[in-house]
Amino acid sequence: MTGTALPVVDTGCRDVPVLKERGQREVFCGLTGIVWLHRKMQDAFFLVVGSRTCAHLIQSAAGVMIFAEPRFATAILGDRDLAGMADCNEELDRVVRQLLSRRPDITTLFLVGSCPSEVIKLDLAKASQRLAVEYVGKVRILSYSGSGIETTFTQGEDACLKAMVPALPETQEQNLLVCGTIADVVEDQFTRLFRELGITNVQYFPPRRATQLPPIGPNTKLLLAQPFLNETVRALQARGATLLSAPYPLGVEGTTAWLRTAADAFGVAPERLASAIAAPAQRARTAIARYKPALEGKRMFWFPDSQLEIPLARFLARELGVENIEVGTPYLDKLLVDAELDLLPRTALSEGQDVEKQLDRCKAAAPDLTVCGLGLANPLEAEGMRTKWSIELVFSPIHGFDQAGDLAELFARPLDRVGRLKV
Ligand code: SF4
């Protein structure tokens, strides 16, 4: 494959051939997920078992919390550990005991694996089982890997949630389980809308408190709020849940279709849905319209990073008139994005990354805006290209009607900055 532009065809992307690349990648690792997961689950603690690099990454990504007790930390593997001279399991048990005796507020402890812990083959699954016996009835101890080998940063959440699935209580009741971290304010908005539709048995996963795990069973309907939970979805399906295939609640169209999917699954009349969403959808349309002049006709290139690329490209193309040149995604799991592919106007799709080749394609296409990770954004800006950091789209509340205007603004802002600098 050379650095030439990919062919672009007409409407709907379900049958578009996907360019699959496996080469050098520029992405953050799964530890990054701790930044939003620790904010969401307020009684959980994340103990990274890693190196100083890992500590530095989450410390700088999450900022130093000076007003509250932190809810993440790194047990640093020193030279003696890495050289196999120390008993890492004993050390880990000692650190965990010290932490839990000092912090009785912790109800769930995640031992988070990293590249170094994987390299020395420290088995955190076994460690969590061993410690879980010691703390049974007091602290739930789980483990997952946030290692950067072969992963992208949103997979940290997928691995974390998958680790929680076996602990979810069983139910035979009909319920709606919304899966994927969303801001509390957005969760409250959705809960109000579901209530207006008469859907009242709604839970969210992850929950706000790790002790209040949502129940699951054969009558659970699963509605995804995030498109990166590939393994979690399969684990929930194995527990009996039925996945509702829907576009993601981004923008007016996505949010409407997402709610309609839930409404149809729970037998809600279309008129009731139309009446419940009329006002917030209109507010969202008005908010989005403000950014259309800045975005309409702009050409956008997406590097694979957050796995939100396909739903966001669909929103920008259909509601703001953006032309997507290439939409790259780290993984393309049709189970999770089929409904999105039907809506995404024809564009070139790529999965995985060979960063040099993709940079060549991007530069040859000369987009108005490039959506990419931090590692690529600064060099591209230095070359005079405008960029949007994809990680910001995971940290910001962007779901639902009331956030649709803010979501459009996140893309309009870098373009607006160019205009101001020119003035
Ligand atoms: Fe780096 Fe790996 Fe640690 Fe992530 S887990 S910060 S990629 S060493």
From TrEMBL:
The pathway this protein participates in, as annotated, is: Porphyrin-containing compound metabolism; bacteriochlorophyll biosynthesis (light-independent)
Question: Which keywords accompany this UniProt record?
Answer: 4Fe-4S, ATP-binding, Bacteriochlorophyll biosynthesis, Chlorophyll biosynthesis, Iron, Iron-sulfur, Metal-binding, Nucleotide-binding, Oxidoreductase, Photosynthesis
Task: Kindly list the positions annotated as binding [4Fe-4S] cluster.
Answer: 29, 54, 115
Is Oxidoreductase included in the keywords of this UniProt record?
yes
* Any single Pfam family the record assigns to this protein: Oxidored_nitro
Question: Could you tell me the Gene Ontology terms of the biological process aspect for this record?
Answer: light-independent bacteriochlorophyll biosynthetic process; photosynthesis, dark reaction
Q: What catalytic reaction does the record list?
A: chlorophyllide a + oxidized 2[4Fe-4S]-[ferredoxin] + 2 ADP + 2 phosphate = protochlorophyllide a + reduced 2[4Fe-4S]-[ferredoxin] + 2 ATP + 2 H2O
> What EC number(s) does this enzyme carry?
1.3.7.7
Cofactor stoichiometry and binding remark: Binds 1 [4Fe-4S] cluster per heterodimer. The cluster is bound at the heterodimer interface by residues from both subunits.
Q: Which residues form the Nitrogenase/oxidoreductase component domain?
A: 29-413
Stored SUPFAM superfamilies: Helical backbone' metal receptor
Stored InterPro entries = LIPOR_BchN/ChlN (IPR050293), Nase/OxRdtase_comp1 (IPR000510), Protochl_reductN (IPR005970)
Q: Which domain of life is it from?
A: Bacteria
Tell me, what does this protein do in biology?
Component of the dark-operative protochlorophyllide reductase (DPOR) that uses Mg-ATP and reduced ferredoxin to reduce ring D of protochlorophyllide (Pchlide) to form chlorophyllide a (Chlide). This reaction is light-independent. The NB-protein (BchN-BchB) is the catalytic component of the complex.
User: Subunit comment for this entry?
Assistant: Protochlorophyllide reductase is composed of three subunits; BchL, BchN and BchB. Forms a heterotetramer of two BchB and two BchN subunits.
Q: Which family does it belong to?
A: Belongs to the BchN/ChlN family.
Indicate what this protein is called per its UniProt record: Light-independent protochlorophyllide reductase subunit N
Which source organism? Answer: Pseudogemmatithrix spongiicola
